[in-house]
Design a protein that fits this description.
It is built from 10 helices and 3 strands. It is mainly α. It has a 3-stranded mixed β-sheet. Helix 1 crosses helix 10, helix 2 runs antiparallel to helix 9 and helix 3 runs parallel beside helix 7.
Amino acid sequence: MEPHNQTAVSQFLLLGLSDDSALQPVIFTLFLSMYLVTILGNLLIILLVSSDPHLHTPMYFFLCNLSFNDICLSTCTITRMLVNLQTQDQRITYTGCFCQVAFVIVFAFVENFLLAVMVYDRYVAICHPLVYTVIMNPRLCVLLFLSCLLISITVALFHTLMVLCLSFCTNLEIPNFCELAQVIKHYCSDTIIDNTMVYVSTSIFGGVPFSGIIFSYIHIVSSVLRMPSSKGKHKAFSTCGSHLSVVSLFYGTGFVMYISSAMSDSLRKTAVASVMYSMVPQMLNPFIYSLRNRDMKESLKKLISRTASIV
């Protein structure tokens, strides 16, 4: 492909899942429904945590922030796709694409860090219960969340500014939404350094939290197995079950998207994988936490009772 002047590029094309015009209304309805379920489910989690004093604990503080982050991640990816489906216009501006790249990086890394912080909270609660309230104090919780946000913003700015220095090729088709790996593929400049920096930063800022999650769960399982009471074992495992499901879903879909992007030349297949990563975990997280968590179910019953009494 012959390189073109970067200043001549003003827009990209977001391919979507299908070119069949008959399928567009079906796809639009499906993804609008999934988006609304995602928003309402995560808002419900935030409402339950905010309204119930019994849930004002570090674990639910981080869960509340995770739900808000899921809303943001879904909104910055899916809303653009819904607009394109409705207007039948696949174009996205140069500025809009790079804003989307930056926001996707920020919210994806925040989710990654929050999952690690949440398992650290469970590690302290189960392995060091006597000093849990001392270690996981409100100041540390806020500091951990702000650190997650600051690191994510720094990584996003670094990568976004890095790719702005490259020049485009003629093929500017991107599956579904603008993400860093797909945007870099459409540059004609030498991207060896850029790809290396992407892999290094992903390995560090993605691998270290994931390794922390594995390390924490090894210690959690070891501590739980040493508990003499079967009731205590069941309670400990049940508090970690929801988080483990969310972790598996997040990293599982992320792995599928990475493999699809690396091994497949089909933009449609990559588009399907990117939708799985950007929508499925965020949509299912509220169901996982509400259906598997007794405290959340009790809080939901209280909220329904209060609402019914008012009506």
